[in-house]
Write a structure and sequence with these properties.
The protein has 6 helices and 7 strands, in the order βαβαβαβββααβα. With about 190 residues, it is α/β, with parallel strands linked by helices. The strands form 2 sheets. It has a 5-stranded parallel beta sheet with strand order 2-1-3-6-7, with helices on both faces. The protein has a two-stranded antiparallel ribbon with strand order 4-5.
Length: about 190
């Protein structure tokens, strides 16, 4: 049985290094035998603002309902996005706010601060671009975006292990460096699809 992989492109632009990484990963995973779906958040239609928190139900737009179906289908989730101002792009954060809801991603237990992780059984990879050197983001800034996505969102929901791959610095990068990152995404996709 082939592995089911969902790739979520969290960079709003479809003409970006992130888009190239996502498509390269997808193509390599397919060639290795995986069944692959790709969501491009920049092409989806939804309100990224969770307008009332969890106090009132905010109906999901069709693209968000379809995204939840795809996440439920997937065995492996691949999130491809840039680090902007140390964290997630607003569109990606809004997407997560809207679909990683109680009853889908987690459920608090009655009269308790404990919760059930409803997305258990899935794994994830983060392919993250940044203008900072990855060592600087890790040791000086302490990886706030990586920690938020890995620990506070995905692992909170039961998705593990979560592997993080940093690509950078992108600003003023050479064609050779970008080609190397594309080759790395190809290897990761081939490994995930095998």
């Amino acid at each position: 049985m082939s592995r089911r992989i969902l790739i979520i492109l969290g960079q709003p632009s479809s003409h970006s290094l992130c888009a190239s990484l996502a498509h390269t990963y997808a193509d390599a995973a397919r060639r290795s035998g995986a069944e692959v779906r790709l969501l491009s958040l920049g092409e989806m239609y939804f309100d990224p603002i969770l307008r009332h928190g969890y106090a009132h139900v905010q109906p999901l737009e069709p693209d968000l309902r379809d995204a939840q179906i795809d996440i439920a289908w997937a065995q492996h989730l691949v999130w491809v996005y840039p680090i902007w101002w140390g964290g997630l792009p607003a569109l990606l954060k809004g997407f997560l706010d809207r679909i990683f809801l109680p009853g889908f991603a987690f459920k608090y237990r009655a009269n308790s601060v404990l919760w059930d992780r409803l997305l258990t059984g899935r794994t994830a990879e983060l392919l993250v671009t940044m203008d900072s050197p990855p060592w600087y983001y890790r040791w000086v800034q302490r990886q706030p975006g990586h920690r938020q996505m890995k620990q506070a969102i995905l692992e909170f929901s039961g998705i593990r292990p979560v592997r993080v791959h940093s690509f950078g610095p992108v600003v003023n990068s050479s064609d050779a460096a970008r080609a190397g990152w594309i080759r790395r995404a190809c290897k990761l996709g081939a490994r995930a699809g095998a």
